[in-house]
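ok so heres the complex, two chains, lmk if somethin looks off
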Amino acid sequence: QQPVQSPQAVILREGEDAVINCSSSKALYSVHWYRQKHGEAPVFLMILLKGGEQKGHDKISASFNEKKQQSSLYLTASQLSYSGTYFCGTEPITGNQFYFGTGTSLTVIP
Amino acid sequence: NAGVMQNPRHLVRRRGQEARLRCSPMKGHSHVYWYRQLPEEGLKFMVYLQKENIIDESGMPKERFSAEFPKEGPSILRIQQVVRGDSAAYFCASSKDKSPSTDTQYFGPGTRLTVL
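and the predicted structre for the whole thing:
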């Protein structure tokens, strides 16, 4: 039920790009992305609804391929403030539950 | 506009005691969700409540755990006879509409429970 994220961890230098993937075994209605810094609450980044849309703001964007039951988060020209653990949250087409992914730890170094 | 509030932020209990965690949703939000996060792990869904109703408690352990969201006051997650394995961060989230289909969830700062 829990979506699988890859990679598990990534280290970037400032200005580099990264892609985080989220893959579900269930047909999805929506995918949400959150970032959590150590010891803090998850902070909402964006939501993607089925329809294969792509969204973005500033240098963070995401895509949702409902046929493949996958979503990807793209971080371009990374900044130190991007460091944290990124979680996807998935809503299957059937059911009430919301499943968080396994998490991807992102560290941006100067 | 205050965000989701949780208290206490840190709670220490001895084995066998009871833990009560409180969550006040954002103003205008009537949907509350509780999650548990073990160290270095992701968030695990526990329960989804609307005012006075439990909508989905499929993620709650069958024993010792209960949740409520009364008409007035905060949502309460109650853990009876705590054991060391209950030590975790417990996050509450709220949304205006049923989430996640039509609205996102906003998270509180969490309560870190330590069982000695």
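quick notes: The interface with chain B takes residues 2, 29-30, 32, 34, 40-44, 47, 87, 89, 91, 96-103 of chain A (CB under 8 Å). thats all i got rn
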